[in-house]
Amino acid sequence: MRIYFDNAATTPTIPFTQTNAFGNPSSPHKLGLDAERKITHARRMFSNHLNCTPGELIFTSGATESNNLALIGFALANQRRKATFMAEPWEHPSVLEPLKFIKDQNLGNVIISPHEEWNACVADVCLAAISHVNHEIGTINDISTIATKLKADNNRTTILVDGVQGFCKESTNLSHVDMYSFSAHKSHGPTGVGGLMINRKTRLVPLLYGGGQENNLRAGTENATGILHFLEIAQHLWETQAGNSTHVAKIKLILEEIANELPNVIVNTNKKIASPYILNMSFIGLKGETLVHLLSDQGVFASMGAACRSRKNANSALEIMGFPPERANSAIRFSFSHLNTIEEAIAAKVIIIDSVTRLRKMLGTSRSI
């Protein structure tokens, strides 16, 4: 049995049922014009969902590219006035690393702190970046309220939302939001496809130059087949969003019960304001990495958090959030999909309890602390 509970890293791709769009959308012949027409339709459908105009949506290779374009492109467009950037310290590396580049290259002022501590930005040009759903513990941010407050403090503030973990899963109110990034492979679409909504009043300098595709902001031949594949899956997920959320909440609840059945297991996810798709738990006395490997051997696939962060050997997001080291180092992230079943959750719960119990006995950490 294979139980895949690492959907926040990437999701299983749902097969594409339509005909591939063969042809370069920039070519003047029939095949090219057909591909262009299909991309135009897809752009219209995505923009309708995001409540923007088709001209305010560009397709990219994924959210990493989208976030880089949004941040570095904004810094370059406002280089003379040297923009101020604000972000939380536990944002995804695709947000934090571009901000590090901006700071290192002296392209702007960068403030890294929790959004509750953001004071009114008095700079002439300011950008605030925040996640729709935290990728580590699943906290849902009320992005519309946060954006409204920041704009009330300073109406020159530009709001970028990393929507990767919320797109196709949570309701999307983009009131006062200027840019919103998303990625197909987090929503059962293909890798190599994503998008960025850009308010027409927001100025960006492109990072890629070439044929002028995507409103002159993202050169390169569009991945027409990938875009259409993503649209097909997204439309299905939008239609079934409420039912999918209810379903994964039941799966999450089954795994949360482990904290009641084993000592020294702590749920790190705030139940009141968290996505049902993400559950973060600490198994005190064990290393998260060790437990992840053992569970993998048993057919249960989870993670210690963002795959991109683990490659950089950086501190975990939980450590940055202020969780005690023992709790942070023993944390596991389980992330779900509507494709997961109740039966998988029940089986995984048994495997997890057995694995934790055996590891603790081996390491002599089974006593209550």
Structural class, by secondary structure, is alpha/beta
- Taking pLDDT < 50 over at least 5 consecutive residues as the criterion, the unreliable ranges are none
Number of helices: 13
Output the helix-strand order.
EHEHEHEEHEEEHHHHEEHEHHHEH
Mean pLDDT equals 92
Strands, total number: 12
Detail the topology: elements first, then pairings:
Blueprint: E1 3-4, H1 30-50, E2 57-60, H2 63-77, E3 84-87, H3 93-104, E4 109-112, E5 126-131, H4 143-153, E6 157-162, E7 179-183, E8 194-198, H5 213-216, H6 224-239, H7 241-256, H8 258-261, E9 265-267, E10 278-283, H9 288-297, E11 300-301, H10 307-311, H11 317-321, H12 325-329, E12 331-335, H13 342-363
Parallel strand pairs: 1-11, 3-4, 3-5, 5-6, 6-7
Antiparallel strand pairs: 2-8, 7-8, 9-10, 10-12
Which short descriptors sum up this protein?
369 residues; alpha/beta; Aspartate Aminotransferase, domain 1; 2 domains; 7-stranded mixed β-sheet; 3-stranded antiparallel β-sheet
Overview of the molecule:
This protein is an alpha/beta fold. The chain folds into two domains: 30-239, Type I PLP-dependent aspartate aminotransferase-like (Major domain) (Aspartate Aminotransferase, domain 2), CATH 3.40.640.10; 241-363, Aspartate Aminotransferase, domain 1 (Alpha-Beta Complex). It has 13 helices and twelve strands. The chain has a seven-stranded mixed sheet with strand order 2-8-7-6-5-3-4, sandwiched between helices. The protein has a three-stranded antiparallel sheet with strand order 9-10-12. A two-stranded parallel sheet has the order 1-11. Helix 4 (143-153) links the parallel strand 5 and strand 6 (157-162). The two termini are 34 Å apart.
